[in-house]
Amino acid sequence: MSFPLSYFLFFFSLVLGPIISISSTSWFGAWIGLELNALSFIPLIAMKMNPYYSESALKYFLIQALGSALLIMSSFILISTFEMASIFLFLALLLKLGAAPFHFWFPQVMEGLAWPQAFLLMTLQKLAPMILLSYLITSNLVTKMTIMAAMLTAVIGALGGLNNMHLRKIIAFSSINHMSWMLMALSVGDSFWLFYFLVYTIIVLSATTTFSSLQTFTLSDLVQSERSSVFNSTLISMNFLSLGGLPPLTGFIPKWLTIQIMADLNLFIPLFFLLVSALITLYFYLRIIISFLIVLNPSMSFNIKSKTMSHTSPALLLSLSFNLIGLLTPFYFFIT
Asked: What's the pTM value of the predicted model, to 2 decimals?
C-alpha cells in the first residue's frame, strides 16, 4: 500500500503527541499532547473511502472529545479540590483507555479498523493515558479505584469475547482483558506495567501481522483452504495461546510475574478475578483453535513440505519468533 506524503506528517504527530503528554509538567500540556495524538490518529483510520472506517473514525473522535473535555475540566478544579479532581482525571483516562466501565466504544471502533490501525489503537494509543494514570497513583483512593477498575475490566474482557465470530472484536475484548492486568500491575508496581506493556505490544504485533498478511477478519476466514496450511494454522494457534497467557509462550511471562507480585502483597481477591478471567479467555481461544483445526477443517493436510511453507513471508516467520520468546522463561528461574 502506498501512503500519501501527508500521512507521514500524521505518523510523526501521532508519536509526538504522547511525548508531549509524558514530558509535560502540567495537565494542560498533557491534554494538548493527547489531543494532538487523537487528531493525528483519525486521518489514519479513514485512509480509504470506506463507510466502516469513517464510522470508526467518528466514534473514536466523539469518545476522545468527551474524555478530553472531562480531563480539561478536572485540571481546572485541581487547585481547589485535589481528591475530586483526581477522581475525574482517573475517569477521563479510563475513558480514553477503553477500560471498564467505559469499554463500550473500544470493540465498536476496533470492528471497523484495518489491522495496522487496530495495532496502533491497542498499543501506542494507550501509552500516554497509562503513563498519565501512573502519575495519579499517589493517593490511597486512586489506588483502590484502579484495583476495582482492573477487576471489572477483567470480567468484561473475558465475558465479552465469548460467542463472537469477528476476530477484531475478539482481539478487542482480549485487549480489554490485558488492560486489567496492566492496571493491576500499575497499582502494585512503579514501572512493572511498562514491561507488561512491552511484551503485550510484541504479542499484538505478532497477531495483527499474521491476520493482516492472511487477510483474515472472521473465524470463517480461518478455515479457507488457502489459509489453512500447517504453518499458518500453527502460527494462528500460537498467537491465540500467547494472548491467553499459556506457558511457555511469550504472553505467560508478564502474567506470571504479576501473579507473583500480587501474591506477595496478599491481593488474593483481585488475583482471583484476574485468574478466572484469564481462564475464560483461554477457553474461548482454545475453542476457536479446536474449531478451525479439527471440526471445521478435518481434511487439512499435515504435510510439513506443503507448497505454502515455501512461500511463507518473512513477516510471518518474524511473528512466529515473537511467540517463542517465552521459551526463555526457564532461564529466569535458573538465574533467580
From this structure: 0.89
